[in-house]
Amino acid sequence: MCNKSRLLYNRANYLIRQRYFEDQFVILTFEINKQMKTEDVFMVLPAKTSQHTN
Q1: Is the dihedral of CA 46, 44, 32, 38 positive or negative?
Q2: Which of 1, 4, 10, 48 would you call most buried, defined as having the most Cβ atoms within 10 angstroms of its Cβ?
């Protein structure tokens, strides 16, 4: 579970950084949560764990 949590964190961090480099805009928490819900790692983790990782 730790490995999957780490992968989820790294993926969210990547998306946040890419958005910042493109638009000079920091993505909001609810936007990143909406994007991450389609990720495989997000779906594999228990709901409480995956929601608190972001």
Answers
A1: negative
A2: 4
CA distance 22 to 41: 25
Burial class (CB in 10 A: 0-12, 13-18, 19+), 19: middle
Q: What is the pLDDT of residues 22-34, one digit of tens each?
A: 888 888 888 888 8
Q: What is the DSSP letter of 53?
A: H
Q: What six digits make up the tokens of 44?
A: 């594999």
* Widest distance between CA atoms in the chain: 33
